[in-house]
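BUG: 3D viewer hangs when loading the predicted structure for this chain

Environment: internal workstation, default settings.
Expected: structure renders.
Actual: progress bar stalls at 90%.

Input used:
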Amino acid sequence: MSKAILLTTGWSENYWKDSNQINFTSSLSNLTSINLETLANSCPLVGIGIYGNAKGKDFSYKPIEYIQISKIAIYDEKQYFYFERIGTSSILSSTLKAKLLAREFVTTLSHDRLLQILTDLGEKPPADWLKLLHHPTQTNGHKHIIEEKPSEFTIHDGERFRSNSEKKIYEVLKKKKVLFFVNPSARLGGQNLKREPDFLVCQEGKWGVLEVNGDEFHPNAAKDHDRARLFKDYGLFFIEAFSADECTNKPEWVVERFLNLLTKSSISQHVHLQEEFNATNTELKNQLNQAKQKVQLLQSQFESVQTSKADEITQLRIQLEQTSQKIESLQKQLNSTQANKIEEIRKLAESSEQVKKSYQNQLATLHANKTNELNKLTMELDESKKHIQSLQNEFALGNNTFESENHKLITELKQKTRTIQELEEQLKPDWVVYILVGLVILAAFLAGMAIMVAVS
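Structure tokens produced before the viewer hung:
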């Protein structure tokens, strides 16, 4: 089968150099179980290890690695690829990814197409890798794919072990009064990672990890240190690793050594915590003293303000009482004045009613009197009119009589004048005659005036 497998990971910047196995969930791969079985039956296969990004870190600046896929397995919906590193390329992972335009973490590519891409990028692959590519090993139909966990575990006493060294340590630990777990599955929350420490031990409430290094399942110390750092990120700080030879040949010493170190670590940690506690306690005491001083200062200021405000409140209360008294007095005066005014208004109303009745009576009497007077005057006026008419009639009659009598008098006067003249002629120059004539004339004038007055 002329297919090469391209695998991409961003777990660490040296993963393809430090590891020999990688697994992917099916969602990250474009290979079906049928394709995987075909590929597994063709192992070993040529492959390319590509660096990508994960957990917020990008390792695509690292060069690609030429690898040989020795075995493929499926377990718990995961695809396991076991590989051997052949060499490092001069091509950066980001360059090859840009050329491939592949998004999956697991994909395949034909030999011809892969060689063409590498040639276009000016790359010359290692001879061993090219040899495997041009002359793949014949498998004679041997089936490499399995549907269970790869046989890295053996069962002993109901527990799973990866090596005989772990079994030796287990036999010693189960004789001690400690709580421990064998190859427990640990999930690192927030990072979606799974790790399995060899032994997780709890002694008197103190937890630690005992690792067996140097056997076929822990060949890389750098990777073990990375795993220890991950545990420490989650607060599991006591992690001790012992060689496979030590665990196999003197497991009692390894366990005693581990437990003693765990105890000392606990004591050291306790001392450290005590020192931190003391330092924190001192700092808290200082802060408490400062807080107390601030509280005292604030309390003093509060008391001063409280005293000042108390005086102000007392004065305000006095003013309030005085104001209340004034209000009560004014209210009483107002009530009294109101009552007096109401009484006055009532009396005025009564008086006004009486005055009104009196005025009405007086007005009625006056009206009656004036009416009588008017009637009387009207009668008198009528009588006066009649009298005037009578007088007018009499005046008209009297005027005629006056004119007649006046004529008579004038005639008589003229006669008497002539008589007088005659007498004067006769009696000249007797002055008595003149007097008498004057008297006669005066008498006649007076008589005429009297008649005129009487007529008018």
